[in-house]
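User: I'll paste a sequence; please echo it back and then give the predicted structure.

Assistant: Echoing your sequence first, then the prediction.
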Amino acid sequence: MVCGGVTVLERNLRALAKQGHAGVTVAAPELPLRADLPLAVAWAPRDAPPPDGSVVVRGDEVAGIRVVDRASCKQAEWELCLGLSKSHQGLIDGLINWRFSMPITRLLSSTRVTPNQITAVSFLTGLAGSALLLGRSHLWIALGGVLIQAQSVLDSCDGELARLRFQGSKLGQWLDNVSDDVLDLTFICCAGVAAGGVWLAPTLAFAAVRGVAQIFVYHEVYRRTGTGDLYAFRIWFDSKKETVDEVYEKGSIGTLIRALGRRDTYVFCWMLLCLANQVQVVALWGIILGAMIGGLMSFHLVLRQKLPSRTA
């Protein structure tokens, strides 16, 4: 049976590959498997005895649930979706966004929609939300805020679907991260235009500062890892932390402070401000973010040569 867009058998085979197994023998009639399966598969008759000393696992269980009919498949799909959240997810992602994104992800898992297509729809949704701010009326600004929050939810769906169906790619990583950064800058610039007056020039200026800083971040990440994984970036005061979970240590004061600067949090706040017709505060938020990111990156570039080199 297909569970979460992947057959139950193949899902188990990928789990074995992740555990370090290079090959398996499947006691079942031969079935088509995806070409990117990361281990060798041999087929044997269903009643063939396992070789001595071999590890025997069931091939019809997912998330501890034996999948035998549609009801058990649905239960297993929900268990899989509940396990998609990252250990280092943001505050709003963990409290609100997942309640919308995971049902969407589960529905999409049985379709031919790809994670990159979701990223494209998400990007267009964010662009539409940004453009609505230029209407300057309370209604258009409020709708713009709702759309940018909808984009944030869809932004979770592409990654969830990629993990659920094993469709992650370097291209998808780049599209996801770069589109988010472009949308943030676009939304802030549109907020500055909508606010007008004294807000326009500083909003555009600090959006440019943030954009340049992000380019340096991407350059450093790509130079070190060959990917667009922004979680691989380490600012100077995190240079000794190897994993993302070390950076976002649960319960620490630093993690709580970081939560205010994470995208899921400030996009949600932008929506609330737009609903309250406070587009000037959105512009101010963008100015502060630009100044903070630009300042931190400037210090990082100055101090980088003094830090121990890191290798991928």
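Strands lie at 2-3, 6-7, 23-27, 40-44, 61-62, 65-66. The first strand starts at residue 2 and ends at 3.
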